[in-house]
Amino acid sequence: MANVVVVGAQWGDEGKGKIVDWLSEQADVVVRFQGGHNAGHTLVIGDKVYKLSLLPSGVVRPSKLSVIGNGVVLDPHALAAEVERLSEQGVSISRDNLRVAENATLILSIHRELDALRESGSAGTKIGTTKRGIGPAYEDKVGRRAIRLMDLADLPSLREKIDRLLTHHNALRRGFGLDEFKPEEIYEELASVAPKVLPYMDAVWRLLDDERRAGKRILFEGAQGALLDVDHGTYPFVTSSNTVAGQAATGSGLGPGGVGYVLGIAKAYTTRVGEGPFPTELHDETGELIGRKGKEFGVVTGRKRRCGWFDATLVRQTVRTSGIDGIALTKLDILDGFETIKIGVGYRLDGQTIDYFPASQGAQGRVEPIYEEFEGWSGSTAGARSWADLPAQAVKYVRRIEELIGAPVAVLSTSPEREDTILMKNPFEG
Ligand code: IMP
């Protein structure tokens, strides 16, 4: 029996929520392994709508164990607030169904402030971040000065750790001409939130290994998308974590052998929020129309998403960097009624044709997409539940995508409704 990792195969917002929710129903354990509350998932279960940022999607279902792994950066206030919000909606959260890695790095108010300061343009390149403090917290992690969840359980030594952290941050603050942080304020902030988050703390690596050995089904829930990966994405316009599937192992403490089937989620077109290169972006009425039909606004920040055609070259690359076994293709119905549809199949760069997305920032900004043009379909794909329900041209479009990206479409999603799905392969069945 395979475990399953779900990763976004583009720049995030591929519609992971619906797919992860469907898979979490079949899973025993659902694990977040990177990112933080920069993610946003909307789950619709029956007549209830749940908005999740930090908690794994399994949390809204009884008898599922939700796990936040060490690869996540954890804002303790955001966790406490999300738990409270869900409790108000009738979801009960306790140590019985939620565990958080003791070695997860904490996001503090100093990280949120620094993120916002940099994004204000007065201090460095604007990335278009979610201003949740994600990047600064990861910086402190690799800088070996972060405060981690377990540190909240040892308040006497916490003061020392805060002093070390502030040696770095206050030097930065002085450089920006800002007031220094007072260690006492950070200490109070942490000491007051500690009782709300410590009950969930655990050695998650051990727990997951036990669950795996007991034959439980584990679902790893990726956030953002592979093109926002700090190594493999459109650097520096990326998030600060590894978002590719390999991170499921590192970010949870379960070895790579426990990871299993990799399901990539891709939209039938492309979107991106924030700054950075986007070769198939549409700056015209067609792009506006896709955005309107697809309701392309961010769950977390409400920002309008940039829209463009499906870029097969990029997805082929993420299929490889994440070892994607199959794709869940979402939002095909948004392309219903378009007279012509294009797919990016390669790039022209400085007079040459290339079949991959180059790593250099300059080249990423200069590539021009080469398109294959398709006749659209006049019928509707919305709500289709079998191949026979799809217009012939839509089937042709999907088949061409499979050929170009080098991976099969395992799941085709034709509306936000859970039942409006065509299933070719259940990822949990290997
Ligand atoms: P950060 O993760 O807040 O540092 O933002 C870095 C980049 O990742 C920005 O372009 C964000 O718009 C993007 N990003 C972060 N989280 C998400 C997400 O959940 N969906 C889509 N883009 C995201």
Automatic annotation (TrEMBL):
Substrate binds at V299, V300, T301, G302, R303, K304, R305. Signal peptide: none annotated. This is Adenylosuccinate synthetase. Belongs to the adenylosuccinate synthetase family. It comes from Microvirga makkahensis. Its cofactor is Mg(2+). The gene is purA. InterPro entries: Adenylosuccin_syn_GTP-bd, Adenylosuccin_syn_Lys_AS, Adenylosuccinate_synth_dom1, Adenylosuccinate_synth_dom2, Adenylosuccinate_synth_dom3, Adenylosuccinate_synthetase, P-loop_NTPase. It is found in: Cytoplasm. Pathway: Purine metabolism; AMP biosynthesis via de novo pathway; AMP from IMP: step 1/2. Gene3D superfamilies: Adenylosuccinate Synthetase, subunit A, domain 1, Adenylosuccinate Synthetase, subunit A, domain 2, Adenylosuccinate Synthetase, subunit A, domain 3. Homodimer.
